[in-house]
Amino acid sequence: xxxxxxxxxxxxxxxxxxxxxxxxxxxxxxxxxxxxxxxxxxxxxxxxxxxxxxxxxxxxxxxxxxxxxxxxxxxxxxxxxxxxxxxxxxxxxxxxxxxxxxxxxxxxxxxxxxxxxxxxxxxxxxxxxxxxxxxxxxxxxxxxxxxxxxxxxxxxxxxxxxxxxxxxxxxxxxxxxxxxxxxxxxxxxxxxxxxxx
Length: 197
Known about the structure:
Elements lengths: L10 H11 L3 H10 L4 H19 L6 E8 L5 E9 L2 H4 L2 H17 L11 H14 L5 H15 L5 E2 L2 E5 H12 L4 E9 L3
Antiparallel strand pairs: 1-2, 2-5, 3-4
Helix pairs in contact: 1-2, 1-3, 2-3, 3-8, 5-8, 6-7
C-alpha cells in the first residue's frame, strides 16, 4: 500500500508565509506541504511559481492602470509614474495603488533615468563602457563589466534595489505583483521633478 506522508501545517505557519509572500492561502498551504513545513523553502517555491506565472503573463496587453504621484516632504522633489495592468478592476485595488505609490517613491528617492536596461540606448551604454575602460585603464575587462553593471543598476528603475527592501530589485517586486494580482503589470513611464532642475 502506497501511503503519502503529510506534514501537519498550522494556520499560523500559513499566515506567516502569506504575510511574507502575499500569496493566496491555498497556495501557501500547498507550498508548505511540498517544503515539509520549511518556511524558506516554501517561499522559494512560491517565488519560482510566481516567476513562471509572470513569464506567461508578460506578453498580455496591459492598457489599464493608473498614474500615481509622490511629493517628498518639503515639496522640493517628487515623481509621477504610470503603472499599467490588464483590467480596471485590478487598477482600483488597494494593492495595485500601493504598488504604484511605492514605485513613485522609488523614482523620487533613486532618480532612475530609464525604465529598464533594454530602454537604455546602445550608444549610451557604449559611451559609458568607454568611460569606464578609460577610468580603469590596466584593470581586467571584468572590472569594466562590473562597473558598467553597477551603473545600469543605478540608472534603470527595474534594476534598482527596492527602497523598502534592498535585498530585492524593483523587477522582483513587479514579478511578485504579477503573481499575486494574476495580471501583467508594467511600468510604462515616469517623470521626476526636483526644484531648480
